[in-house]
Design goal:
This protein has 285 residues and is an all-alpha fold. It has eight helices and no strands.
Amino acid sequence: MTDTAPSEPLSPGRAATGRRAGPLLAVLVVAVCLAAGQLLARVVLRFSGVDGDSLAGLGLFNVVAFAPTAALLVTWVVYGERRPFASLGLRGGDRYRKIAVGVGTALVGLVALNVALSALGSDTGASGEGSGPSVTAWQMALLLLTFAVQAPTEELLFRGYLLPALRERWGVAAGVLLSSALFAAAHMANQGATAAYALLTFLLGVALALWTLADGNLWRACAFHTVWNWAPAVLSSGDGDGDNGAQDAAALDGGTLTPAALVLALIGLSALWAYRRGVVRVSAR
């Protein structure tokens, strides 16, 4: 990776007004926004009486934890840094094609993961067959809406806000790797999180960061992340948050970690190819 990157969210000169936070302040802002949302969601779940392991609990957590988180971040960017909301990576044309590509890539990746798990004879696949009761179409649709809150909020935090701050100070490679490492570290708060789970989340973060830099916006990353989290959660009847794309954090072992890491590494390579092609395209202008 080089520093001759194509346009990206919050790159110098792109924001019409305001001033971007430095790396340390950006990390603090992300941590505070996340902590506030997570605390609120846990309080609401506790007093609502909703089972946190159910589909209803998962959907409620997605909305209550991440909608306020996004609102806090946007409030800080607009009023604290005096920058427009779109500067977080929600600008640029061709958004519908990028969203379609993100959805398609996630579905292909999940199918490939399921095939790999089946080929290795693992009992825990991406499909989650037989792990819970059937899910109705309207439940799937409602849960998709909640993941369309959760996943894009994480993209706003780690790729729309944090990645550009790190990239501007320390370069593309450091920006991608550090933002992905912090993305994985944040997920260690999930129940049953392990080192293997963190590795998979890191690999996912690298791919999402490279797509963000390649596209100059978050549309593809948001679409991919939403489907990547939603499909396994639905097919496993809501067990786990789906962030490893296949199974609960506590369910990872040698038989599931290897194919999951391989598929995510291949996805990361495809994202790197997209980034490199974008660099060449911009350099040729």
